[in-house]
Amino acid sequence: MTRVGPVEIVLTHLTRMHDGHICIAGLDRTSGRHIRPVTGARIPRSYLDRPGGKIQIGSILRFTAMTPVPSAPEVEDHQFREADSDVIGQVSDHDLWTILEAAESPDLMTIFGPSFHRAGRTWALDEGEGSASLGVVRARERHGPTIDAYGKVRLVFRGDDGELLNIPVTDLRLFRADDGTPDRAAVLELKREVDRGDVLLAVGVGRAWAPDGEKRLHWLQVNNIHVEPAPTR
Q1: Which range of residues forms the domain containing residue 19?
Q2: Total-model pTM
Q3: How many CA atoms lie within 13 A of 142 on its CB side?
Q4: What percent of the chain is helix, strand and coil (3-state, nearest 5)?
Q5: Is residue 2 part of a domain?
């Protein structure tokens, strides 16, 4: 693949992974398309602290060079070197909301493609299928986020088929920095915000996974919950 650059993205997806690693993704400031920066290994949480400042939702990240490495459904993947990236700014909450609305899809099927299907109580893609792995959709009739009996953060919202979905949330802002356990105060505060405002979800499907002996699938997850900011006076 041919290298491209420079590339600037507004960070809209910032998610927790296991063992102190993270996943980041955002919207290209030129094309409006999703880009997921990846390296040859998992990205450590320490990557959040760049010379230009702390990476957070709404950060403007600049990559001097990237190499597209698409593989369905992760068509957004672009490989980069940490030394070739930095934070160059931060968009306002209102500008971030405008950017998210511009990227909004009418439903999940539009994001992930016709092979996206119900799998038990949730939705998924078969391994290696799908037209995308990232998107933005409006949360209709949502409840949560909450922490379930297993200590997992989840959000309930109505899916494409009219049924309620109970989906795991990997939003980094809802987890403690030390051990990755849910931050109950942060979850409660976000629930209050969700209850009072319009909500856009940065959604995705994970890398293919299954319990031993079962079919591997790319499972739906809520990467980040974005609430419309209050009007400025």
Answers
A1: 7-94
A2: 0.95
A3: 26
A4: 15, 45, 40
A5: no
Q: Which residues have CB under 8 Å from 141's CB, separation 6+?
A: 157, 158, 164
* pLDDT at res. 162: 87
Residue 1 lies in a domain: no
Is the distance from CB of 136 to CB of 144 less than 8 angstroms?
Answer: no
| 65 plus 174 within the same structural domain | no
Whether residue 122 contacts residue 205, with contact meaning beta carbons closer than 8 Å, is answered with no
Grouping H, G, I as helix, E, B as strand and the rest as coil, residue 114 is coil
β-strands 77-79, 34-38: how paired?
parallel
Let me know whether 51 and 121 are in one domain: no
pLDDT in tens, 171-193: 999 999 876 799 999 999 999 99
C-alpha closest to that of 110 among 130, 127, 93, 91: 130
Distance CA 27, CA 2 (A): 20
If one counts the domains in the chain, the total is 2
- Same structural domain for residues 85 and 132? no
Range list of H helices, 27-176: 93-103, 108-112
